[in-house]
Design brief:
The protein is an all-alpha fold. The chain has one domain. It has five helices and no strands. The chain has helices at 3-16, 21-28, 35-40, 46-57, 63-72. Helix 1 packs antiparallel against helix 2. It is elongated, with a radius of gyration of 19 Å.
Length: 73
């Protein structure tokens, strides 16, 4: 294994640990705000992204329902 294979392994593992692209870039010495990390190290399947989005919006009340609740009060 050469240095760059080890470096890629490190970046990929940090991506699997849910570190941000910026965090990975800082660790690997990039100065592009995470663009290189997004391109080479963060490999997120679409299903995982959809699952996270669903979880994020699970407890959000739609505006029309919130407005109806206020008018009933």
């Amino acid at each position: 294994m050469d240095f760059y294979e080890l470096r890629h392994f490190c970046g990929s593992e940090l991506g699997r640990m849910k570190m941000t692209a910026f965090d990975i870039g800082v660790q690997l010495g990039h100065r592009d705000g995470g663009k290189t990390a997004m391109k080479y190290y963060i490999h997120t399947p679409e299903e995982e992204a959809q699952e996270r989005l669903r979880a994020a919006f699970e407890n959000v009340v739609p505006l029309d329902r919130a407005a109806r609740k206020e008018s009933l009060s």
